[in-house]
């Protein structure tokens, strides 16, 4: 049954992996209700009857959650409301409660004025054409009608129990920086039951993020963690993004352990249990990671950047573990195959305990390579994919050794450089890795030659 009412979303709201906007401007409560109506329609037409809904600690999240639930119920769905918590707790609820889908209201690591929605269809990802279809259904008014029910479900303690199920018995001294994000309360409950000593930073959930922005991939956001680890002489430190699906880490010396380096440690542990397993990493990851996986008898698989794309590839290949430079870590080994930074923290503890070496020793043993940070170039939205194609064509004609999985990743005797188009912003993203400063300069010169040829300002390091 359909009705004549319809709704137009702001053209920037529906992204490749989620819906995201500025509250009161490009994202309103009316948008939230219609997202519920459209998504509920898709779930019903997929044979589903109930969805789980959660929300993060942003000030706008409770009102957006209420509007979303109104829309879901109006589409005829029953709603399981799991309340305030990290995104992976919502993923856990969908899996454990037998829901036919899920929606998480979260702005992740965006500034406080933003908010958004992450979706699951069944227990799998929901992205790309599926998200665009939400706009099509709302604009046409082609939506289902009904009068679903809603029910509050407290799943937080069950989620903590599940995290503890894979925790090691070894005593660690760890600092946990929640950045005032949605993981704070769960981390308090989790660490209260872990052995060892745990120093907690900024666990109070506060949508103003008064201490620092909750994005562990930016070095400046790890300064408080470094200070506590050094002052208290701890084994290592962990940090989480605003909705708890991305992890950051530092060792006892304050050195950052980047996403691909975490994956090196975790992959070695998983491959001990799953010999020959396929381990997936995104195109921004170090060659050292892919070599390390192969050296440990695993099958390294380079794949596209984007958490939804990685989850889909894991299901396709039966991969037990995957990760991205951004700190999304996905465990299908002993877990559900989604990105959960709190579970990744537990598995990192487990991996270090089983390795018989400290995390600092493991970090110190990694190859000494020189990497650029992620370099970003703002370009017109309508040009970003064209630029990548121009670069690809020139390199192909020149006989370059390159991967075209996601943009272009060019291999040379000096190392490699990457140029890809962001799926979520009007930017190009570049990265390079070499064994020496001189080699890195040559790689950057190669990259700059291509950027200049497509009228993009060159890199200056």
TrEMBL record:
Molecular function terms, GO-annotated: intramolecular phosphotransferase activity; magnesium ion binding
Q: Name one GO biological process term.
A: carbohydrate metabolic process
Domain of life of the organism encoding this protein: Bacteria
PANTHER family referenced in this protein's UniProt entry, alphabetically: PHOSPHOMANNOMUTASE, PHOSPHOMANNOMUTASE_PHOSPHOGLUCOMUTASE
UniProt-listed PROSITE patterns: PGM_PMM
Cofactor(s) the protein needs: Mg(2+)
Taxonomic lineage? Bacteria, Pseudomonadati, Pseudomonadota, Alphaproteobacteria, Sphingomonadales
The Swiss-Prot or TrEMBL record describes its family as follows:
Belongs to the phosphohexose mutase family.
Residue span(s) of domain Alpha-D-phosphohexomutase alpha/beta/alpha: 14-130, 158-254, 258-364
Q: Name the UniProt key words of this record, in alphabetical order.
A: Isomerase, Magnesium, Metal-binding, Phosphoprotein
- Please name the NCBIfam families in this protein's record: PhglucPhmanMutPgmG (NF046027)
Q: What is this protein called?
A: Phosphomannomutase
Q: Which residue ranges does the record assign to the Alpha-D-phosphohexomutase C-terminal domain?
A: 374-448
Which SUPFAM superfamilies does the record cross-reference, listed alphabetically?
Phosphoglucomutase, C-terminal domain, Phosphoglucomutase, first 3 domains
């Amino acid at each position: 049954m359909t009705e004549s009412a319809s709704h137009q979303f702001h053209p920037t709201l529906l992204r490749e992996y989620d819906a995201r906007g500025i509250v009161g401007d490009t994202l309103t409560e009316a948008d939230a209700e219609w997202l519920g109506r459209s998504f509920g329609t898709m779930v019903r037409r997929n044979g589903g009857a109930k969805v789980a809904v959660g929300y993060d600690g942003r000030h706008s999240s409770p009102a957006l959650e209420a509007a979303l639930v109104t829309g879901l119920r109006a589409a005829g769905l029953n709603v399981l409301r799991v309340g305030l918590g990290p995104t992976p707790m919502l993923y856990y609820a969908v899996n454990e409660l037998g829901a036919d889908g899920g929606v998480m209201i979260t702005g992740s690591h965006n500034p406080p004025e933003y908010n958004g929605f992450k979706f699951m269809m069944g227990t799998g990802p929901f992205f790309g054409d599926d998200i665009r279809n939400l706009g099509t259904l709302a604009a046409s008014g082609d939506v289902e009608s009904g009068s679903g029910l809603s029910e509050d479900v407290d799943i937080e303690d069950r989620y903590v129990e599940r995290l503890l199920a894979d925790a090691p018995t070894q005593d660690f001294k760890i600092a946990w920086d929640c950045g005032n994000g949605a993981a704070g309360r769960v981390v308090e409950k989790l660490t209260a039951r872990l052995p060892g000593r745990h120093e907690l930073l900024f666990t109070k959930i506060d949508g103003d993020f008064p201490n620092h922005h909750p994005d562990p991939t930016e070095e400046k956001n790890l300064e408080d963690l470094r200070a506590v680890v050094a002052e208290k002489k701890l084994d290592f430190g962990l940090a989480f993004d605003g909705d708890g699906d991305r992890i950051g880490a530092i060792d006892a010396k304050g050195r950052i352990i980047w996403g691909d380096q975490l994956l090196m440690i975790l992959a070695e542990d998983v491959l001990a249990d799953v010999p020959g397993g396929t381990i997936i990493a995104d195109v921004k990851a170090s060659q050292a990671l892919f070599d390390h996986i192969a050296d440990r008898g695993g099958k390294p698989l380079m794949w596209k950047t984007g958490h939804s794309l990685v989850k889909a590839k894991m299901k396709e290949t039966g991969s037990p573990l995957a990760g991205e430079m951004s700190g999304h870590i996905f465990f299908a080994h002993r877990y559900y195959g989604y990105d959960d930074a709190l579970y990744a923290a537990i598995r990192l503890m487990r991996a270090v305990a089983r390795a018989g070496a400290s995390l600092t020793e493991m970090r110190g043993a990694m190859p000494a390579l020189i990497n650029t940070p992620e370099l970003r170039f703002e370009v017109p939205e309508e040009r970003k994919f064209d630029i990548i194609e121009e670069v690809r064509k020139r390199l192909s004609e020149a006989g370059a050794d390159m991967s075209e999985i996601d943009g272009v990743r060019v291999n040379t005797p000096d190392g490699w450089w990457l140029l890809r188009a962001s799926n979520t912003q009007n930017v190009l993203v570049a990265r390079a890795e070499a064994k020496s400063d001189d080699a890195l300069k040559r790689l950057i010169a190669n990259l700059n030659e291509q950027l200049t040829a497509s009228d993009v300002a060159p890199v200056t390091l």
